[in-house]
């Protein structure tokens, strides 16, 4: 894990993603060195962190991760495994809240798969959510 300024935590997942983290942390050279970690702070309503969307970790975790994903997005699939691993190893520190975001124009079947995942998620059947 990398600690950013003002207590922002970045997960160091692999070297390919490290470049993106450096850009967010303002560590990259260039004409303008903008610290995006200070700029990109979305205001998330508390109701987004509800029990229905909690996939792993704890509701009371001090660090909450909102994950929006399309089941056929290759980047989402790649990074979701890493995020789940970190959360499962630290369930008292992180809470992972999963939101379905099917990109139907790019992946037409993602809407149907997202609906199936939602049914399994509501049943608490996380193994089938992971399988999809």
Describe the secondary-structure layout:
Layout: E1 2-3, E2 9-10, H1 15-24, H2 36-39, E3 54-57, E4 63-69, H3 74-89, E5 94-100, H4 110-123, H5 126-131
Explained architecture:
With 132 residues, the chain is α+β, with helices and mostly antiparallel strands. The chain folds into two domains: 1-41, no CATH class; 42-132, Glutaredoxin (3-Layer(aba) Sandwich). It has helices at residues 15-24, 36-39, 74-89, 110-123, 126-131; strands at 2-3, 9-10, 54-57, 63-69, 94-100. A three-stranded mixed β-sheet has the order 3-5-4. Strands 1-2 form a two-stranded antiparallel sheet. The longest helix has 16 residues, at 74-89. The radius of gyration is 16 Å and the shape is globular. 13% of the residues are buried.
What's the tally of helices? 5
Strand and helix order = EEHHEEHEHH
| Proportion of helical residues | 25-40%
Largest beta sheet: strand ordering: 3-5-4
> At the first level of CATH, what is the class of the largest domain?
Alpha Beta
- What portion of residues belong to β-strands? 15-25%
Task: Tell me the distance between the termini.
Answer: 28 Å
Counted up, domains total 2
């Amino acid at each position: 894990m990398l600690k950013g300024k003002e207590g922002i935590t970045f997960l160091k997942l692999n070297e390919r993603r490290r470049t993106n983290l450096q850009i967010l942390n303002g560590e990259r050279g260039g004409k303008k060195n903008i610290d995006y970690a200070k700029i990109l702070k979305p205001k998330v309503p508390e109701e987004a962190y509800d029990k229905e969307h909690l996939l792993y970790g704890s509701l009371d975790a001090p660090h909450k991760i909102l994950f929006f994903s399309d089941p056929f997005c290759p980047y989402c699939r790649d990074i979701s495994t890493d995020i789940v691993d970190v959360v499962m190893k630290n369930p008292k520190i992180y809470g992972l809240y999963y939101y379905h975001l099917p990109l139907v124009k790019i992946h037409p079947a993602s809407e149907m798969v997202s609906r199936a995942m939602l049914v399994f998620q509501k049943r608490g059947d996380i193994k089938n959510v992971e399988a999809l």
